[in-house]
Amino acid sequence: MKSAKFVQGSTFRHVSVMTLSSTVGLLALFAVDLVDMYFLSLLGQEELAAAIGFSGTLLFF
């Protein structure tokens, strides 16, 4: 039987792994927002691009 992963070992390593995982997730969200903004801007409707830009700002905060 395996033991729990985050109950033994270096605390700094555990915090680093969790921080890196969160960072990758946030970067993925922002990358998807950027791609959405690009493709919506190709449609020529400024309202859609503005709405995605505004929601990206809200997501950041």
Question: What's the main sheet like?
Answer: none
User: Structural class, from helix and strand content?
Assistant: mainly alpha
Number of contiguous helices: 2
Q: How confident is the prediction overall: mean pLDDT?
A: 83
Explained architecture:
The protein is mainly alpha-helical and 61 residues long. It has a domain at 22-60. Helix content is 77%, strand content 0%. The chain contains two helices and no strands. Helix 1 runs antiparallel to helix 2 (46-60). The relative contact order is 0.09.
Topology:
Layout: H1 11-42, H2 46-60
Helix pairs in contact: 1-2
Keywords:
mainly alpha; 0% strand; single chain; 61 residues
Précis, in short:
This protein is mainly alpha-helical.
